[in-house]
Amino acid sequence: MQQNQLLMIPGPTYVPPRILSAMSAPMINHRGPEFQAMYREVQEGLRTVFGAQGDLVIYPSAGTGGLEAAVANFFSPGDRVLAVTVGVFGDRFATIAERFGLQVERLTEEWGRAADPDRIARRLAEDRTREIKGILLTHNETSTGVANPLREIARVREGHPALLLVDAVSSLGALELKAQEWGLDVVAVGSQKALMIPPGLAILALSPRAWQAAEEARLPRFYWDVLAYRKNFEKQSTPYTPAVPQWYALREALRMVAEEGLPAVYERHALLGEMTRSGVQALGLSLLAEAGRRSDTVTAVRVPPGAAVGRLRQVLREDYGVVVAGGQGKLAEEVFRIGHLGCISPMDILSTLAALELALSSLGHPVHLGDGVAAAQKVLAGRKAR
Ligand SMILES: Cc1ncc(COP(=O)(O)O)c(C=O)c1O
Hints:
This protein has helices at 17-23, 33-50, 63-72, 88-99, 117-126, 150-157, 179-182, 208-216, 226-233, 244-260, 262-282, 309-320, 346-362, 371-385; strands at 6-8, 57-60, 80-85, 103-108, 132-138, 140-141, 146-147, 163-167, 186-190, 201-206, 298-302, 322-326, 335-339. By secondary structure, the chain is α/β, with parallel strands linked by helices. The site of pyridoxal-5'-phosphate (PLP) has 13 residues, from helix 3.
């Protein structure tokens, strides 16, 4: 039987029909008044979601392009940066900086643990000569399901001149983030996660300090050069051809966020996260992420002893139409990941848990059908009663 797939991976996420249909509008002149009007609306909406000031830089690109732009624009050859990494994406950010010839000092934690603000504070305090020019940080580590305490880390950075560069690819629009208020210098995001639109845009929010750094930085860049974008801000335009259908999608997505209200969006994600965690734990499965730092956008679940990640995912997909992600890097055989960000509802979580129970049971793992769903329902009922 052909069934609709329930896409429960941490991006690309389900794209609501309203956004898909917005994308099918006819092409317009990207240097004309219709694009300028869209530019203004999109920038206004993004400022709200990022809690940012000024215009943001919007590239046609995967999220990794945003990370590369975050490195290439703000440093000079040989600059030292502190790369705080707790998983695959923190490592990627660090590797990009290495490729660009920066001196990268990695501050790592065991996978499943979050970055420790005190460790970062101690390292910054030791840096009396102010050699550290930037801190690279992943807000939400998608590979481990850990949400780093971004606000606390931003606080401990206060008083040190290093720029704080944040990979918010799997957090922005789902987890609270206030770029200006928290003092984040660069926030990089991809379009295919909580923003609910297809892959293809990377967005960068910059603080005034970051703009200043971009003027002084000497690393080579052309396509990623934020200064080329800034020259076009006044014209409400972009230096190179923008991905117009992606912009249509982004405009529609930002309207949807405004209609739901950002606080309600955050609250929905908190609910989805809690339902997922309660459900899988009620099935006797354990979570990779440490308590207190578990992400509300993605949950990494350890497979039960004797189970193979690939087989479990296959049964979920082929028999129940539920698509979850595998583990990444060294976690490939240890965890599967449930994405619960973007246009996801509590009912999607209940369906996913029901499918998980059935899949585990059919693979011979002892689960009591209904336990996971019931636990998640209790969370939902509790929230509704408030
Ligand atoms: C935290 C984080 N950073 C960066 C990326 C890379 O994004 P992309 O695959 O669009 O390059 C991802 C993608 O999953 C991510 O989750």
